[in-house]
Write a structure and sequence with these properties.
By secondary structure, the chain is an alpha+beta fold. It has one domain. Helices cover about 25% and strands about 10% of the residues. The chain is built from 2 helices and 2 strands, in the order E-E-H-H.
């Protein structure tokens, strides 16, 4: 049976593991403070969280990347755009 798609692994959306911030090299990931889900004095939580595979943001991001890859590989422009979505089987 022929494969209907070619898996492409994208480890990071920007491809950079480290960044320079105010002259200091640091990992390109949220800090422990940014991951802290503890509410503040007003009961507000301001943090990063991992989104689910079927979350709207995840679907939108994968559709955009799928569309970019479609254009890069020269898929016919009259194909149904909803047919092109990045398949990320390693996400949970």
């Amino acid at each position: 049976m022929a494969t209907l798609h070619t898996p492409i692994t994208i480890l990071r959306s920007d491809g950079v593991l480290e960044i320079m911030h105010k002259g200091v090299r640091e990992l390109n990931q949220p800090t422990p403070e940014q991951l802290d889900e503890t509410p503040d004095a007003n009961g507000m939580v301001d943090c990063y969280r991992k989104i689910g595979f079927n979350d709207t943001k995840s679907l939108d991001w994968r559709k955009k990347i799928g569309g970019m890859l479609k254009n890069y590989y020269g898929v016919e422009k009259d194909t149904n755009p909803s047919m092109h979505i990045l398949c990320c089987s390693h996400l949970t």
